[in-house]
Amino acid sequence: MNIPRHIAIVMDGNGRWAQNQGKKRVKGHEEGAKVVKTITTYCSNHPEIERLTLYAFSTENWKRPRLEVEFLMKLLDDYLKKELPVYLENNVKFEAIGDISAFSKKLQKTIAMVEQKTAHCNGLVQSLALNYGSRDEIVRAAKKLQQQNIEITQESFNDALDASMDVDLLIRTGGDFRLSNFLMWQAAYAELFFIKKLWPDFSTNDLESIIAQFQGIERRFGGLK
Ligand code: FPP
Fold first, then answer.
1. Weakly modelled stretches of the chain, pLDDT under 50
2. pLDDT computed for residue 1 by the predictor
C-alpha cells in the first residue's frame, strides 16, 4: 500500500483550544505537546513512515507575547529532556531544522544533547522545525552554496537545505488554508490536507483516516497516468 514516507504537520489551534475551555493559551501548548508524543509514537510503529516533521516554532512566532514565547521555549526544553528515553525506546532519531542559534544556550544544548543521544536510532526520524521558516532556510542554503562556491542545481540546492526529503503528505490542523512558510520547497508535490480540528484534539484516528485518503490519491508528479 502507498504509505507516505514523509509526513509534515502544521500543528495549529492550541491557543483557540485553550480559550474555548476558558483556559490560558499556554495550556493549549501543553496539551499540544501530549499530541506530539502520541502522533510520534504512532508513526514510529509504522515503519513505512520514515520522517515526521512538526512545525513547533516559526521564525514569525517571536512576534507573540514574551511570556508565551518563554513558555514555549521551556516547554520544548522540558519535553525533549523528558522524551529522551521514549525516543530511545521507540528507536526514534530526533533532529531539529531551522536556525536554532537564536535560542538560549541552554535550549541549544538540550537540542544538541538529544540529537546526539538519538543519532544511532534508525527508525522514524522526528524532525522538529524550530525557529524555522522556508524563506530563511532557502536564503541560508543559497549563502552556504555561494560561500562554498558550489554550482547551484536543483540537487545541490536541495542538499543545502535543512530538510532534504520531499514531503509526501502535509497536514494542517486548525481550519486555515495556508502553508505559513513551512517546507515550501519540500512540499512541491505534497498532498495537502487542511482539517478543522484543533491540534490538541487531533488523534491517531484522524491521522489514519487522512492516510487512508492519501492512499486513494493518484500521484502523477506532473506526468501522465
Ligand atoms: C500553533 O497554535 C502552535 C504553535 C505556534 C506551537 C506549536 C507547539 C506545540 C504543539 C507544543 C509544543 C511542541 C513540542 C514539540 C513540545 P496557535 O497558538 O497558533 O493556536 P491558535 O491559532 O489557536 O492561536
1. none
2. 65
What pLDDT score does 218 carry?
87
Please report the domains of the chain, with CATH numbers, ordered by start residue: 6-133+166-215 (3.40.1180.10)
Residue of the CA atom closest to atom 14 of ligand 1: 33
Model pTM above 0.85: yes
pLDDT of residue 216: 92
Which atom of ligand 1 approaches the CA of 32 most closely? 10
* Catalytically annotated residues: 12, 61
| pLDDT tens per residue across span 159-180 | 999 999 999 999 999 999 999 9
- Give the atom of ligand 1 at the shortest distance from the alpha carbon of 30: 11
Question: What string of H, E and C letters represents the secondary structure of the chain?
Answer: CCCCCEEEEECCCHHHHHHHCCCCHHHHHHHHHHHHHHHHHHHHCCCCCCEEEEEEEECCHHHCCHHHHHHHHHHHHHHHHHHHHHHHHCCCEEEEECCHHHCCHHHHHHHHHHHHHCCCCCCCEEEEEEEECHHHHHHHHHHHHHHCCCCCCHHHHHHHCCCCCCCCEEEECCCCCCCCCCCCCCCCCCEEEECCCCHHHCCHHHHHHHHHHHHCCCCCCCCCC
